[in-house]
Amino acid sequence: MQIRQVIKALHLLPVLRLIWSAAPKWTTIRLILVAIQGVLPLPLLYFTKLIVDTVSASLHQPDLPRLLALLAGVASVMLITIVCNAISEFVNTAQSQQVTNYMQDVLHAKSIEIDLEYYENSDYQDTLQRAQQQALHRPATVVNNTLEVVQNSISLMGMIALLLSLHWGVAAVLFVAVIPTTMVRLKFVNVRHEWYRRRTAMDRHNRYLSWLLISDWYAKELRLFNLGQFFRQRFNRQQQQLYRETLEIGQQQAIANGCAQTLAGALIFAAYAFIVYQAFQGTLQVGDLVLCREALLRGQGALSGVMSRIGGLYEDNLFLANLYEFLRLKPKLVEPIRPQSIPTPMQQGIVFDRVSFQYDNSARQAIRDISLNIAPGEVIALVGGNGSGKTTLIKLLCRLYDPTAGRITIDGIDLNQFAISDLRRQFSVVFQDYAKYQMTAQENIWLGNIELSPDHERIFKAAHHSGADAVIQTLPQGYDTILGKYFETGEELSLGQWQKVALARAFLRAAQVIILDEPTSAIDPEAEAEIFQSFRQLIQNQAAILVSHRLSTVKLADCIYVMENGCIVERGTHEELMQQQGKYAFLFETQAQNYR
């Protein structure tokens, strides 16, 4: 390992800037304490030498006042050391917590800034996990290592000055003795880092298996299909493999460290033997012997501390590269330099003009050459099998992705000309995998429009329209009941009940377009009929997009688009499509037979 490589890897400034931004006050106090703590060993050693010399001289002529004064000096230095250590421990705790909180916020901010595309990419998941594992504690470790380098360097310079006053060769031994252990440390830092990166995917898979075993989402199936032992054994096999590899690296490092430390110990012993010989010859006083011994041991400790902490900084920066890799991710959706205002209300509506799209991690096009119009206040429906491109179309409309070909416009203006946050405010969406917030029932609905007050009357109206109100009224604390079992006193809902809460959230949002992706898949037919009987009144002249496999739901749409393999294969009203006797008519009749 070349020193140049180490220095190149120590990109401390970005991390130190993060630390300073997180906790400037505590960082300043720690710097002052480090300087004081670095200097304190020097007067303590010098007082010790003077005491030994004074005691030696006092055997013939006692000098009690001088001895008491020196002891008072030692006591003062020790008291200052104790006070500084106590303060330093408190400051270190405060700074570390503040840095952790700050880094958590940085991680969260970046997570919500990047595009949805990253979350649907396995490579990104590896990057995110590495960042999450390192971001919270590594920056604080960098600060500790940096300040330890400063403190040990101050002590080291003092010890070297003391040793040079006795013999230059002893000071030289310090530097030679620490080289072997430092080289071993740096070598195995690289070995561990490379192993860690190679094993990220396996480690993430094991975390997934652990989640399967402890999550309430899978608890029923694990028991019914007797999958618990199967997943447990798979988890343990992979953990054992990781354990064996970790043990192998640790064994190699232990052997190398043992050899390096034996060599370093031999050099230090030789230097100390030389000092004893000098004292035996009468070249040095007894106090000089004690001073040299202590300075040699403390100097070795300080130099080892410096080199070890530099190795630690090198390791920290290798692992922090994972954090930098994450923070360097940039949104692929470009914000316009001069965003245009959203037409409110829409006059011409939304137009998909020959739109195609392909996911980066897929070889096939998700949608191909799609053209359709949505007039203001119009209700359209998207019908088709799984994988036909319906949900992808919704993602493009909400600008979670940009089309790979064609364009989408509102009143003739391309979506990429609007500020993304303004554009998304125009849509209220319930996706198939709608969110279940472990919060109160009232908050679950209020999250659909947080610009309202948390107790706004529209929350209760939205709940009434979606059918959620009847469910919530049966809960122990009504709208103040926490939904889900994640927290104490929480009440779990059925899938259909959760879906009604999600619908209420969508109805609450003040948007020009409401999008319901399989909005009633878990709701019983009676409740579904009640919701859609008054659907026109519920959406209040909003345009609406319905995505559903239940064709009884889409009959009310002004226009139905039938999708297959990413293309629109049929379009028209329910009556028109039934007359065509095409795919829609076949699907409708197939479903209808089940009710006859």
From TrEMBL:
<feature type="transmembrane region" description="Helical">
    <location>
        <begin position="64"/>
        <end position="88"/>
    </location>
</feature>
<keyword id="KW-0813">Transport</keyword>
<dbReference type="GO" id="GO:0016887">
    <property type="term" value="F:ATP hydrolysis activity"/>
</dbReference>
<feature type="domain" description="ABC transporter">
    <location>
        <begin position="350"/>
        <end position="590"/>
    </location>
</feature>
<dbReference type="InterPro" id="IPR017871">
    <property type="entry name" value="ABC_transporter-like_CS"/>
</dbReference>
<feature type="transmembrane region" description="Helical">
    <location>
        <begin position="31"/>
        <end position="52"/>
    </location>
</feature>
<dbReference type="InterPro" id="IPR003593">
    <property type="entry name" value="AAA+_ATPase"/>
</dbReference>
<keyword id="KW-0472">Membrane</keyword>
<feature type="transmembrane region" description="Helical">
    <location>
        <begin position="154"/>
        <end position="179"/>
    </location>
</feature>
<dbReference type="InterPro" id="IPR011527">
    <property type="entry name" value="ABC1_TM_dom"/>
</dbReference>
<keyword id="KW-1003">Cell membrane</keyword>
<dbReference type="GO" id="GO:0015421">
    <property type="term" value="F:ABC-type oligopeptide transporter activity"/>
</dbReference>
<dbReference type="InterPro" id="IPR003439">
    <property type="entry name" value="ABC_transporter-like_ATP-bd"/>
</dbReference>
<feature type="domain" description="ABC transmembrane type-1">
    <location>
        <begin position="31"/>
        <end position="315"/>
    </location>
</feature>
<dbReference type="InterPro" id="IPR039421">
    <property type="entry name" value="Type_1_exporter"/>
</dbReference>
<keyword id="KW-1133">Transmembrane helix</keyword>
<dbReference type="Pfam" id="PF00664">
    <property type="entry name" value="ABC_membrane"/>
</dbReference>
<dbReference type="GO" id="GO:0005886">
    <property type="term" value="C:plasma membrane"/>
</dbReference>
<keyword id="KW-0067">ATP-binding</keyword>
<dbReference type="GO" id="GO:0005524">
    <property type="term" value="F:ATP binding"/>
</dbReference>
<keyword id="KW-0547">Nucleotide-binding</keyword>
<keyword id="KW-0812">Transmembrane</keyword>
<dbReference type="Pfam" id="PF00005">
    <property type="entry name" value="ABC_tran"/>
</dbReference>
<dbReference type="InterPro" id="IPR027417">
    <property type="entry name" value="P-loop_NTPase"/>
</dbReference>
<dbReference type="InterPro" id="IPR036640">
    <property type="entry name" value="ABC1_TM_sf"/>
</dbReference>
<protein>
    <submittedName>
        <fullName>ABC-type multidrug transport system, ATPase and permease component</fullName>
    </submittedName>
</protein>
